[in-house]
């Protein structure tokens, strides 16, 4: 039933303590041909300062690779890096950072045909292995653009453990949202001629299950970091196999996109916004949200809209705009009439539950 003749998988997924100090050894085991090839390292200035020793060591290990600092995750910046790669015959690009850096490096590698090595400094969302980059285009507008997934993904568990807890909670939110995304994917397939790819569906479900049913509750433990790393990578691979973001993105993501595009003043991470959206999405789908609510409360993930400056009017407007942000994408929102009374009740319930 697979709709696709071909998809890419990473050659390497290494999740180890102090992996950054032996990145070259890890790469040499899996892709020995690139050792000695001309390389650049892409990051952000505050990360270059924060992890100066580690990033400098990566640069030395890859032939004193030039370190480039990006200012924003924009299409123009990714294209400028790709141009440099092509003109200077650079063969390898190493992205060290969060979603902004990784999306920029990933797209630059895609259009320049360079080998891309992904080194996340936090586990805030599933962009580290997804076949998409989210980049700024004009002003605050952002576009999700298809691209090639990384050749290698290297996760330094010590680095992740030292990242702010909020970033890890964001990654948890993005993972748990697959619960409502998969429902919406099946709904969409039932309404159109499209099919659900069984293998992509199973991978996405495994990603969700591995975190939702995880016995380790310490977000900074090596066990939990390994589980979350693999869950986020599995989500990315599910999208690669499906050829779309459907295994990981449904009505809850439309809600998050509405915040990002229409309410940029609201300071909330993508993963937390998605987690917040998954609770109403569950209710709209006729599923009980209790399991998700208990899970989020256990980890201290704050899903109360009011705590992020979102009032009832804004909450309703976000759900209205969620129907419009990705034209043609069928989710449970396509089936519903906007019900202010229900949204007010959900808002009050989410306020009480945190």
Tell me what the structure shows.
The protein is an alpha/beta fold. The chain folds into 2 domains: 12-163, Rossmann fold (3-Layer(aba) Sandwich); 166-353, Dehydroquinate synthase-like - alpha domain (Dehydroquinate synthase-like, alpha domain), CATH 1.20.1090.10. The protein has 15 helices and 8 strands. The chain has helices at 23-30, 45-50, 52-61, 75-87, 99-112, 157-162, 165-176, 178-191, 198-212, 222-242, 251-262, 270-284, 290-299, 312-322, 340-353, and strands at 12-16, 39-43, 66-69, 92-97, 115-120, 132-136, 142-146, 152-156. The strands form 2 sheets. The protein has a 6-stranded parallel sheet with strand order 1-8-5-4-2-3, sandwiched between helices. It has a two-stranded antiparallel ribbon with strand order 6-7. Strand 6 (132-136) and strand 7 (142-146) form a beta hairpin. The longest helix has 21 residues, at 222-242. The chain is globular and about 60 Å long. The relative contact order is 0.11. The model has no long low-confidence stretch (mean pLDDT 93).
